[in-house]
Give the backbone structure.
Amino acid sequence: MNITKENTGELTAVIKIQLEKSDYADQVKQVLNKYQKQAQMPGFRKGKVPFGVVKKMYGAGATVEEVNKIVSENLQKYIQENKIETLGQPIPNIEKTGQIDFDNGETFEFYFDLGLVPEFNLDGLNDLKVEYTKIVVDDETVTKFIEDAQSRLGETSHPEVIEEGDLIPCELIQLDEEGNEVEGGIRNETSLDLEQIQLKTIKKQIIGLKKDEETVFDLMRAVKKVSEITKLLNIDKDAAGKISGNYKLVVKDIVRVKRAELNDDFFKKVYPTAEIKTEDELREKVREDAQQAYSSESDRFFTISAMKAIDEKLNISLPDEFLKNWILSTNQENITPDQLENQYSNYADSFRKQLIEAKLMKEFDIQVTPDEVKAYIRDFFTKQFPVDEADEEANARMDTMVNSILQNQEESSKIFNQILEEKVSKVVKEKVQIEEKEVSYEEFIKLATNAN
């Protein structure tokens, strides 16, 4: 067997694998011997069919199977032993390989195209300036959280008549211009919060209704927000943006919540493990938790911004034509060449981001161990369900929950990537110059949305 590599461009190469008969003959013979032991033909007992007959019948197929196996194994072995860093996977070069005659040939040549990882370094990160958007937790945010918790933990009643602030389980039915229900039209059972109604005249129209009573109004004019329409009608965003005309609202129930009082019982329900005695202490705890949650969002956005800034600074080249061919060869049913051409910049951004992350991990020895993943999961559950260290039974239940998540490949991979992202973000924070900018949560959402 002879394996050679030839560079075909700055970031591309071709590997040639040449097999002689001696490289595969023994393996093929072993396969045919197995076939012979199982072969059954008229005039012969099982396992007594002449080897020559078996070879004539199955020789080409066995050769194809064994040759492909040998080629695949040695291709990967050659890449690993020669420490060739590749993007994607090797692609068989059909044109160079040509048509192989497994029936009559003895020497076979195979060609594979490679995309090579570009060389680059992380010099100059210290000179890079990246904005860090710190979300400020304002009083309004704290108040809203507390009011939501008061409603969630409050007393629920079902009054006869709708009043301001009520929640209305109802059915919404699409009507035509004559006021008739549209056959096959939209109808959905949902819950309407009166706060969703932006038009005062329509809100007055609903207030005062009783169970089983109904009213008609223009839903889009009343609600105005497409995001709310999608929830109320259970339709996608595009469809919600196109709705028009009147809908009938049929009241199914009326739900009124009396907010829980701000007392010791409420404080304990909201924060079971914290010692909170006053509203001021509650507000401070809410602000602290919100800031921690917001910090995670700020960190994620910072990492995205930093990666883009590093990418722009490094200007990493990619073997674009190879990658396009590789993407098409691995996604034949999901993407067309025209679609790929339009979307390739997104693929390229993703490849460069992965290369930068890999370089950071290697250069700064960033690793995530199985113990870290396990500790992360346990810490998450402990915050939700505090466990006394002395309670063996509770700790055993906790271990069962943790192990259940660990055995879920998809979930454990998500947690692994989350920890990895946090570690990468920490390193990047230490290396670049941070320019902090304080914003409200609403401003942050706009920034993050526009960045995407």
